[in-house]
Prior knowledge:
Layout: H1 12-44, H2 47-83, H3 87-114, H4 116-122, H5 130-142, H6 144-159, H7 165-187, H8 191-217, H9 232-264, H10 268-304, H11 308-342, H12 348-362, H13 365-380, H14 384-406, H15 415-437, H16 449-452
Helix pairs in contact: 1-2, 1-7, 1-8, 1-10, 2-3, 2-5, 2-6, 2-9, 2-10, 3-5, 3-6, 3-9, 4-5, 5-8, 6-8, 7-8, 9-14, 10-11, 10-12, 10-13, 11-12, 11-13, 13-15, 14-15
Protein name: Probable multidrug resistance protein NorM
GO molecular function, one term: antiporter activity
Subcellular location: Cell membrane
Amino acid sequence: MNFMQDMTKGSPLRLLLSFSVPLLIGSIFQQFYTMADSIIVGKFVGADALASIGACSSVIYLLFSLFLGLSAGIGIVISQHFGAGDGRSVRRGIANSVYILLAASCLLTLTGVVFARPILTILGTPSEIMQDAAAYFQITSAGIIAVAFYNGISSILRALGDSRTPLIFLALAALLNVGLDLLFVTVFHMGVTGAALATAIAQFASACACLAFSLKANPYFHIRKEEFRPDTGLMRRMMHIGLPLALQNAMIAFSCVMLQTVINSFGAMIVAVFTATNRIENLVNQIYIAANTALSNYTAQNLGAGNTDRVRAGTRCCLRITACFSFAMILVMYVCGRLFMSWFVTDLQVIETGARALKLISLFFLFWGALYVFRGTLNGAGNASFALISGVLEVVGRMGCAFLLTAVPFIGQWGIWLAEGVTWILVASAGAICYMRGSWTKTHLTGAGRAAKVCTEP
């Protein structure tokens, strides 16, 4: 079966929806990695154990986010060549991506394993949860190479229009993660360490299975020996797009790390509240991420083929979809906030505080969706400048607002969630301005595409 899809022709709405649905389902399954850990640990071990996972989650995201950026850069370059019909460059891009991902994963694994406790100490992690937080951080860091290659392979497959294959193996890994969580935590009583091991094992299984299937089924993965020769020009282009995206993700994650220091200052109860609300927000975020990824690949293929009008049409479709979803989620958070919080903990104070926080943050969901749409178009065009602007605004907005708002007496702890909302407004506004200026329409492949479509084969 051929899962690849040419997104340079056909209805933009139909293409984006058909591409987004597997992404959305896959993203929800991916949340099971962290949600399963949080729910099972929170229910069977306790609120302090849940807080220990939350205390290091922002730092772990910082490490993982670098691979998301590098993988996105790799995928965008490959997608542009696929849209232009240059099969040889697609294969060479896949081969050269191995060097980038391997080097980055080795460096970041070493960082996470060796410096886990010092990093958590700098963040002001409460002493009662330090041991469990450090163990979770180190074990998760040991599995970074699996995260790197799963995300790299998935990004390449999506660049070729295939959003279904990553879903299949991610779903299997999510189910494996839940099963291992239950085994290690409830049967073997391994606590937070067991939850981290379950996640690492599931990630390795997902990466290996996805790679094996791609080598067998996707013709672009049938790479000739000479195509593995390092191509500095191709890697430089991947890094030119990927590094700003990685830096953008790193700055977003860094701002979350700094926000964690504010959260930690309010004690273990607020850490537990934020951990649970953050997991719920991440579920909502999956439709925005799906729209972002679909639009990024759609944009890259169509700019490779010189179809800027199709990119604009796709952007308008995604804005309408995310706006409708955002308004629906406001209602859901007001009605079901307490129910969602009760998934994670039984402590009534944590549940009540979390439900109020969800009502507050939902008022900003419309801006959250818009920033992902504009980011998808601009990232797909390889617009490195917006990636950096976006990252800087995330840091300034999240850090500055968190410190300022929580210091206001009548706001206090609620400034944690207000800071998120203000940050989304800033980034969405910057994305809208960059999109309307139109400089994203100019890429090195624009206009080269349709004529080249028949020149090369997979």
